[in-house]
Write the structure tokens for this entry.
Amino acid sequence: MRINDTVMVTGGAGFLGSHLCDRLVADGRDVLCVDNFYTGSKNNIRHLLSSKQFEFQRHDVTFPLYVEVGRIYNLACPASPIRSAWKRKTFKCSSGRKCRGTASCGHSASTG
Ligand SMILES: NC(=O)c1ccc[n+]([C@@H]2O[C@H](COP(=O)([O-])OP(=O)(O)OC[C@H]3O[C@@H](n4cnc5c(N)ncnc54)[C@H](O)[C@@H]3O)[C@@H](O)[C@H]2O)c1
């Protein structure tokens, strides 16, 4: 996996994230999928786990994660409004400042 060509998809085991991972791998990209399986499922990415282009890391993005990637798609937020209300800290990450270059996801989690 070449670092700058790697795309990180947070929430990559969710509905949209897993389809995005599918597309990126099909396009020949190296993908780092990050998810805590809060609403997502390993079943959504099981078919990708054997791919050399695909790497999975179980992690809650409201905590810092230091990885070097070229691009980040942040979909780590439950789609359901009811579930989202339960997981308020997820909003803190999803509405935080943009990550660029070297990833530092979850940086906004400690801001109140
Ligand atoms: N599904 C839609 O039609 C739709 C439409 C417009 C916008 N969106 C938005 O796109 C995003 C993703 O939607 P979805 O349908 O794929 O939802 P989803 O719940 O299927 O996927 C969200 C993924 O994020 C993961 N996640 C949640 N909190 C996390 C955390 N703290 N750390 C790591 N992983 C975490 C979940 O486990 C899950 O895999 C949401 O923000 C949603 O509001 C969805």
Notes: The domain at 3-110 is CATH 3.40.50.720 (Rossmann fold). The longest strand covers residues 30-35.
